[in-house]
Amino acid sequence: MSNVTISDVINRSEHRGALSRITGQQTFWVFVAAVLACLALTVMTDTFATERNLFNVTRNFAFVGIIALGMTAVIASGGIDLSVGSTVVISAMTVGVVMSAGWPFWIGALSAVGVSLLVGAVNGVLIAYAKMPPFVVTLGMLSVARSLAMVLSNNKMIYQFGPDHDLLLWLGGGSTFGLPHPLIILLILAAITAFAFRWLRWGQHLFAIGGNEQAAVLTGIPVNRLKVSVYMFSALMAGITGILEVGWLGGGTTNLGQAMELTVIAAAVIGGANLAGGTGTAFGAVIGALLIEVIRNSLILLGISTFWQGTFVGSFIVIAVAFDRIRQARSSE
Hints:
The chain is mainly α. The chain has a two-stranded antiparallel sheet with strand order 1-2. 75% of the residues lie in helices and 1% in strands.
């Protein structure tokens, strides 16, 4: 005589349904890949699992992860932002120039954030109100922002930051409880972004626009204003990264953030953001950035030329998009 009740059957079905939903997410498999890569490198090398290397890995991927949070929001809304690398450098140069002039850190940081938000606002206004393609607008801003950073700094390296010099270096290059500060800031920003995506009207409207912009307009969502805010959010994440990178490097040059756009887009797409819009998570952005950094680190530790890094990153973008297309095709059957 069986002791299985109807409630037992329902619970098992719910568990199987929850498991299938989890394993059906691209983010889950990216996370598994990152864990397996870490385990493999731990076995294959003597240097990966060392405290110093893990510190470097977590700090380096944090920079990409922070920008990827903003890029995920842009991609989920149906857009793209190719100017994030240039926003990093103009933010870095702004905080450097202001602090080297003798102003305190908070003035320099606010100035850098303000300039970054201005970059995002210009992008958003041209895209939302002038109806210009995001690719064209942000590609143009890529050149404009980096050029302005060169003008601002006279294309010179800045390495003296006035009375708060040590504070800036501590923020970008220091640690607390053994965790690099950029990683701590990434975790805080990821939690805030995840909350905004899930629970705030801003996040819900963002995904609605990316899923079907015309339907979003008909439901009364302020599409234009929301688009401006999304590009400002992306620029804000890049601006924060610029401040942290100056503190980590101990100096700022106009080469900062160069070609960073591809890596950030790759992190967002690998983490589950759909280039067609409508999907993406903060957790996915973080995991995508982690996987890319683990790959980069593995190339160095295994003695493989870093020239291969672009091949791996580009391949992962194609694979991630192909995986998403296959999943969508199966779900529509």
